[in-house]
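Exercise 7. Given the encoded structure of a 120-residue chain, write a plausible sequence.
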């Protein structure tokens, strides 16, 4: 346990204490995603994280790149259970759309790419 000291008037301290207690009592879910997908989850300027929060009411925190372990990075969700479930589903859909790989015959790559990259 760590001691928290609040300074200010009684009303302000009570309000701050309530906010802190609400934050630490919310359900939390932590899971990992491939580190190279973290930018997709965060979005430009945090836009995707903000969108997920807006849709689900859940705070989304993506670990920093220097906290990566075995090319995986932690994602922390804080909020009500249903919102956490929905936020995780959104994130998993985001990264799964972008990680599918398959092979095609080498001689067909030009057909897929098109002249000058016209089909990409």
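Solution.
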């Amino acid at each position: 346990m760590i001691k928290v000291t609040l300074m200010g008037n009684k009303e302000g301290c009570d309000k701050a204490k309530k906010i802190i207690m609400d934050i630490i009592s919310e359900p939390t879910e932590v899971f990992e995603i491939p580190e190279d997908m973290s930018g997709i989850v965060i979005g430009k300027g945090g836009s995707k994280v903000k969108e997920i929060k807006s849709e689900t009411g859940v705070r989304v925190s993506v670990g920093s790149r220097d906290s990566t372990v075995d090319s995986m990075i932690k994602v922390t969700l804080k909020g009500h259970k249903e919102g956490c479930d929905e936020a995780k589903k959104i994130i998993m859909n985001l990264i799964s759309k972008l990680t599918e790989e398959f092979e095609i015959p080498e001689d067909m790559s030009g057909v897929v790419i098109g002249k000058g990259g016209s089909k990409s």
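Remark. The chain has a mean pLDDT of 87. Students should compare their own answers with the one above.
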